[in-house]
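User:
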Amino acid sequence: MSGNAILLTSIFLFCIGLIGIFRQGDIVRLLISIEIMILASVLNFCFFGNSFGELIALIAVILSGITISVVYAIYTTQLKEKNIDFLGED
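Assistant: Predicted structure:
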């Protein structure tokens, strides 16, 4: 795959993430949008960087996964405290 195709794909993914952030949905959609933006930058690090860029990309993916899981756990805990049925369980 050429460098231009990778760059255009990364720009497209980053723009999708920005649109998702500016639409101001709920917290889950916001987190998914941020994750898409991080993965767009990771794509650039992996393709255009050397081994140091790949290391930075690995660290970014690990940290974003940890962040997403912690924020989602806090969000679901707050919903449980407000007695909101967020999973549709009976």
